[in-house]
Design goal:
This protein is of the alpha+beta class. The protein is 36% helix and 16% strand. The strands form 16 sheets. Strands 5, 6, 7 and 8 form a 4-stranded antiparallel beta sheet that branches.
Length: 938
């Protein structure tokens, strides 16, 4: 209800035409349309040119039919804004069209003087029914349509702020509160006796979308924005979320379609569980294609024959793949491939092969008379559905604008919150549909490097094998029982909260761990295109869990559930030779695999580096969340360390095949520069004496950009050589352990060489190991490699021409560690927007072209979360000291004679200290001399 004064003020509100001013980042086109995409945009805009009503400023909802709902008006505003920033229409035309539109909208007759009628004649602005017949009373209002236009209003006022007052006046004139009741959205309908009945509107998908539109203008509908009530229905092997309010009891369809998730993705950025739901909805359509050969992209659409409007659904009212009218009448013969749905999935999931395939089927489905895009293709007849609509063409323009903005949501993610309630425990591990196996040749890519040369044992060459084409039996792991005395939050005390921008980055990074989560096994894929994990990758996940909880990106409940699930899964991993976790595992079956994903039932050795990564993460879990101590110690006490720690050195095991078929195990010292030092520090936390692997001693250097960059240790215990120097292990060490004097002497020339290269050449440089979606799949953009500076190498040591990448994760980390440095600031600005709102941050961009490097990994997104946490911890090391030495681990160490290579004494071999340069961990402990210097030689 209005206050009387407000009502009187608005009664005399008279807007004045205004001219747009380009004063915001809406014009920031970071990924310009290709020439082909420009053709798509111009074709879609022609619909609005040919269906414009100059007397009102409105457009027809369908070609040649002068009618329109508030939803259609929202479509037009979104299309008009997109066309302006894509330079499809001129500024003067934009202003003229928007001024006319708002002038008419301001003077619309409202239903019962409350809210706009459900539909108007686009040519006259009269209230009408759906047959376009004038009605004095009208037929009610739609709350979902109100939510749609409120979202469009927000985009207009953001991108063209001089229209803000005019829009505020329109919204204030409407009695929006009348459409809210009990935290839900309510529409109005007129009964046969002319009485008005309020009816709850919205089902899962559209209900949340509409409520977020309301929220943008300060109207709260908490029940509508929550995901409940819903259930999971298995369709084509995928658990699909379905609104549990059925048609029989509510007379409302609970359809599952594509468009609501597409709109959420391009406008708000899919958040919380909606990101997972969207991937399932796309994946099930792919699976229908896999089993039937019928391309599938279903959503609601107009059609070019009676009954003229249909809902093509994944599920509706108890039926899979139902095609129905609003009255639930079936018309399966008219199911169609939707043009707008195909466009939406293609640009929301740009790396998805199926989305590309279905897009290719409709991308040229334009009318020959240049009137816009047709609505789709009938599945049965294979003929075009020649309906021309503002919905199809408006959404295409909006999607292309989203792409041009670098896949940035059109509405700031902090503008409207979203429920993050979890699906029930029966949710399947439906894999996001953008996770497709690649078809690399293992003989060309997997065999070129021995496993010990993999710094984080990442899966370097995903290959399709016969086993990949059949559905594996997924192992269901039961989480460990609830822990004693659960903590409501992290033990950490943050120096400040995240800024809104930082929070957006944290949410985006966490999306990787939502999109790539196996809800049955509790594991996360190392990379989004491969169903495999290493111990390093699982350590990344555990570190990301801690960071996300500390930053309040996830709830205590989600943190606890995921942590208990992961800890349980770690106890189920088969150990290599009964000693230590193998190098890689299938995240569905938990069985050992090689780096190409091929099953190796006996395992393929272990990596001391990966063990170090996991030990660091497990130690910090105990320190910051001590309620998990017993479960953590149980895991690490199951492992044997007799061969991984030998004479103060970390060693890794590989398996080689002899010509006679025998498998031979070889254990060799680790020599990977930076990684060895990082892993050693982690082992020291648990009391292991690994002085000869810890940072210190003499290092050989090479001159790069006039700086002495370390290339390897001086060693007498092995002939193995470090192949290249990259940033990853050094920045991770700095974030987790701080930069002690020895590490700083290595870290600084590595960073300064990259900064100097940028100053000399203007080429952004953040040298790192990154994963991409094509051969050679892993690229080492080195500072120096095999004797040459700035080379890009594959795992096989071969150069990768034009393959150098600027690493997103390393850019975030350098800025966290060196926030005052000018180059780190410039580097961050160049990479912060490299994320897909559905699946996390990309690996980076190519130095030579500036194009985004397609690839998503747990390592990158974990490091970004850790970098953000480091910033708000006042630059304190992320690894925090434990508060007790009486845990099961230390009790077993004290007992001695364990037969599994535990430390000889119950003391940590490293300690956290502080001085004028900051806080950092250093080697130290009883009988362990403190390393005081690092000698560097040429």
């Amino acid at each position: 209800m209005f206050l009387i004064g407000t009502f009187l003020q608005l009664l005399f509100y008279i807007p004045t035409p205004v001219l747009s001013q380009n004063s915001n980042n809406c014009s920031n086109i970071t990924t310009p349309l290709t020439s082909e995409e420009q053709t798509y945009a111009r074709a879609a805009w022609q619909y609005f040119v040919k269906n414009y009503q100059p007397a009102t400023g409105f457009t027809n909802s369908t070609g040649g039919y002068p009618s329109g709902t508030l939803w259609d008006m929202g479509n037009y505003l979104m299309a008009l804004n997109a066309a302006r920033w894509l330079n499809v229409t001129e500024q003067a035309d934009f202003d003229a069209h928007l001024n006319k539109f708002l002038t008419t909208l301001s003077s619309l007759k409202l239903f019962e003087n409350t809210l706009p009628n459900k539909v108007y004649n686009a040519a006259t602005a009269q209230m009408v029914d759906y047959g376009n017949n004038p009605l004095e009373q009208g037929i009610g209002w739609s709350a979902l349509d109100v939510g749609r236009i409120l979202a469009a209003f927000d985009v207009i006022r953001t991108c063209h702020p001089q229209y803000n007052d005019w829009l505020k006046g329109i919204v204030a004139k409407w009695q929006v509160a009348r459409s809210l009741k009990d935290g839900q959205l309510f529409g109005a309908t007129v009964l046969p006796d002319k009485k008005t009945l309020l009816v709850q509107e919205g089902r899962l998908g559209y209900e949340e979308y509409g409520a977020r539109g309301y929220q943008l203008w300060g109207f709260s509908a908490p029940k509508a924005i929550a995901l409940e009530p819903f259930k999971l229905v298995e369709i084509n092997g995928v658990q699909i979320p379905v609104d549990s309010r059925d048609f029989q009891s509510t007379n409302a369809n609970n359809y599952v379609v594509s468009e609501s998730y597409i709109l959420d993705g391009i406008e708000f950025g899919l958040q919380g569980e909606l990101a997972d739901f969207a991937t399932r909805v796309l994946d099930v359509q792919k699976r229908r294609f896999d089993t039937t050969g019928q391309l599938t992209a279903v959503t609601e659409d107009n059609i070019d024959q009676a009954p003229y409007f249909l809902y093509n659904t994944v599920y509706a009212n108890g039926a899979n793949w139902a095609t129905i009218t609003d009255a639930n009448q079936p018309y399966p013969q008219f199911r169609s491939i939707s043009t707008k749905a195909a466009f939406g999935w293609r640009y929301l999931f740009p790396d998805n092969a199926y989305a590309q395939k279905v897009f290719d089927a409709v991308k040229d489905l334009r009318s020959p008379d240049d009137s816009g895009y047709y609505a789709g293709i009938y599945e049965e007849s294979k003929q075009p559905n020649k309906a021309l609509t503002g919905n199809t063409n408006g959404l295409i323009l909006e999607i292309l604008y989203y792409k041009a903005r670098g896949n940035h949501p059109l509405i700031a993610s902090t503008s409207a919150s979203v429920s993050t309630s979890k699906p029930n425990e029966n949710a399947s591990g439906a894999t996001p549909s953008n996770q497709l196996n690649s078809t690399g040749n293992p003989s060309e890519n997997a065999s070129g490097a021995t496993p010990s040369n993999q710094p984080n044992s990442t899966v370097t060459t995903p290959i399709a094998t016969p086993a990949d084409t059949s559905k594996p039996t997924e192992v269901a792991v039961t989480p460990i029982p609830p822990v004693d005395s659960p903590q409501p939050s992290s033990q950490l005390k943050l120096a400040r909260p995240l800024t809104p921008v930082e929070r957006r980055y944290a949410e985006a990074a966490w999306r990787y761990f939502q999109a790539n989560y196996h809800s049955k096994s509790g594991l996360i894929d190392d990379r989004s295109d491969f169903k495999g994990a290493t111990l390093w990758g699982l350590g990344d996940y555990l570190a990301a869990l801690h960071a996300a909880r500390s930053l309040d990106t996830i709830t205590p409940k989600e943190f606890d559930q995921r942590t208990r699930h992961l800890l349980a899964a770690l106890t189920k991993l088969p150990l290599f030779a009964g000693e230590l976790p193998s190098r890689g595992y299938d995240t569905r079956t938990l069985q050992p695999v090689d780096y190409g994903g091929n099953p190796v039932p006996e395992g393929n050795g272990w990596s001391a580096l990966d063990l170090g990564r996991m030990l660091a993460a497990l130690y910090n879990l105990k320190s910051c969340h001590p309620e998990y101590t017993a479960a953590v110690d149980k895991i690490v006490l199951d492992w044997s360390y007799l061969r991984v720690v030998r004479e103060g050195i970390l060693s890794s095991a590989t398996v080689t095949k002899e010509q006679d078929g025998r498998s031979l195990i070889r254990v060799n010292p680790e020599t990977r520069l930076g990684y060895e030092e990082y892993a050693a520090r982690a082992f020291q936390l648990w009391g292991f004496n690994v002085d000869r692997s810890a940072v210190g001693g003499e290092y050989q250097t090479a001159s790069v950009e006039g700086l002495k960059v370390p290339i390897q240790r001086h060693r007498t215990d092995t002939n193995s050589k470090n192949q290249y120097t990259v940033s990853n292990p050094f920045v991770l060490y700095g974030l987790e352990f701080g930069l002690d004097p020895q590490m700083r002497s290595l870290f600084e020339p590595i960073f300064e060489a990259q900064a100097e290269r940028y100053r000399r050449t203007g080429i952004f440089t953040a040298s790192a190991t990154t994963l991409i979606d094509r051969k050679p799949y892993t690229v080492h953009s080195t500072i120096t490699g095999q004797g040459d500076p700035w080379v890009a190498l594959g795992d096989n040591g071969q150069p990768v021409p034009k393959g150098r990448l600027v690493s997103t994760a390393v850019a975030f980390a350098y800025h966290a560690l060196l926030p005052e440095n000018k180059y780190s600031q410039q580097l961050l600005q160049g990479t912060t927007d490299l994320y897909n709102p559905l699946v996390g941050f990309y690996e980076g961009f190519y130095e030579t072209t500036g194009k985004t490097a397609v690839g998503f990994t747990s390592s990158t997104n974990s490091m970004i979360l850790q970098s953000l946490l480091y910033k708000v911890m006042n630059r304190q090391p992320l690894i925090r000291p434990t508060s007790t030495m009486k845990s099961p681990w230390w009790q077993e160490v004290t007992k001695g004679n364990s037969g599994r290579g535990l430390p000889k004494t119950a003391i940590q071999r490293t300690k956290l200290i502080s001085d004028s340069s900051g806080s950092y961990w250093v080697s130290g402990g009883e009988k362990t001399p403190l390393v005081t210097g690092t000698k560097v030689t040429e």
